[in-house]
């Protein structure tokens, strides 16, 4: 497994009480010495007792032992401060910025230079939704754009499988790479890597409770928005779908709602699959309708608008890369 000393330091730092992503983003830029990190923890954290360099080194060695147990399932760990740490898109508050990622496969697929579209949706789409989603993903893949999703059943799996027909795909997981969730999609995860794709997770240990797992799914949803240039919702129930359609006793809300919300917060372009004539009475499109009504900037997918989305991804990426290169030249 590949990792730098810096990545292990970042990972170890996060194990201390009161230290989360926001603390690390505010206090560390990467590649600080252990002495510097220990000083910052002692002066600016919720630790009840002072820690020593020896304490940190002990925890660091434990961390290394923990992650190396599953090295066959993971190609590496990368963290802020590392040379090739993938740059997220959009405007992101400190508490939601990635600070380290475990990965298996081609990490360059989520580089800022890579053109990426996230495609998400509900767990139980009907056959019509599946066919329409497959067609959209097929068109995107033809333009050499990478498809991102969350490896869940339903729309996520459809996106990954269709992308494997001539393209590349990335799966963001709520679980460590040695414990693929959902387990029944383990074969799909393997195929994604075998075909030159990528698996990404922020976790190396298993969840400790239902609440912890719920939080991890939310983090997974945010990553789907963070590393894409546009996010597409195939279809999804809304929070009140069960009540609205009198489908009592069913939990119909999906993580797609959260991912679309994160994308809005980050100013990532959003699009939805929707046909007024076909979908108006289908509860599986409740979230799509809700988003269309709430946000005039939402793109409703047609052949023409899909072509515009793809064109804008290339144009905006070229512009952003030129700006980044210009800034870099200023400091050389």
TrEMBL record:
Query: What is the official name of this protein in its record?
Result: DNA processing protein
User: Could you tell me which residue ranges the Smf/DprA SLOG domain spans?
Assistant: 77-233
Q: Which GO terms describe its biological process?
A: DNA-mediated transformation
Q: Name one Pfam family in it.
A: DNA_processg_A
Database matches in InterPro entries: DprA, DrpA_SLOG
Family recorded in the similarity comment? Belongs to the DprA/Smf family.
């Amino acid at each position: 497994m590949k990792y730098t000393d810096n990545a292990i330091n970042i990972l170890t730092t996060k194990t201390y009480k009161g230290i989360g992503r926001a603390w690390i983003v505010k206090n560390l830029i990467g590649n600080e010495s252990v002495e510097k990190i220990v000083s910052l923890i002692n002066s600016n954290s919720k630790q009840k007792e002072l820690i020593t360099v020896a304490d940190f080194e002990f925890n660091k060695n434990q961390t290394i032992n923990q992650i190396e147990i599953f090295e066959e399932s993971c190609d590496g760990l990368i963290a802020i401060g590392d040379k090739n740490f993938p740059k997220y898109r959009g405007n992101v508050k400190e508490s939601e910025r990635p600070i380290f990622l475990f990965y298996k496969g081609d990490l360059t697929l989520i580089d800022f230079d890579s053109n990426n579209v996230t495609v998400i949706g509900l767990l139980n789409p009907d056959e019509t939704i599946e066919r329409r989603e497959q067609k959209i993903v097929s068109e995107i893949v033809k333009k050499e754009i990478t498809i991102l999703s969350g490896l869940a059943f339903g729309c996520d799996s459809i996106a990954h499988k269709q992308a494997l027909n001539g393209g590349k795909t990335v799966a963001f997981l709520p679980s460590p790479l040695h414990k693929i969730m959902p387990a029944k999609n383990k074969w799909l995860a393997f195929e994604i890597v075998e075909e030159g794709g990528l698996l990404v997770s922020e976790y190396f240990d298993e969840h400790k409770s239902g609440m912890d797992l719920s939080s991890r799914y939310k983090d997974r949803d945010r990553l789907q928005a963070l590393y894409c240039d546009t996010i597409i919702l195939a279809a999804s129930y809304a929070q009140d779908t069960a009540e609205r359609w009198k489908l009592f006793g069913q939990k119909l809300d999906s993580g797609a709602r959260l991912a679309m919300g994160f994308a809005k917060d980050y100013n990532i372009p959003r699009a939805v699959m929707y046909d007024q004539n076909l979908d108006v009475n289908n509860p599986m499109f409740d979230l799509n309708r809700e988003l269309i009504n709430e946000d005039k900037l939402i793109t409703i997918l047609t052949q023409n608008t899909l072509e515009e989305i793809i064109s804008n991804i290339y144009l905006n990426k070229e512009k952003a890369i030129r700006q980044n290169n210009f800034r870099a030249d200023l400091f050389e």
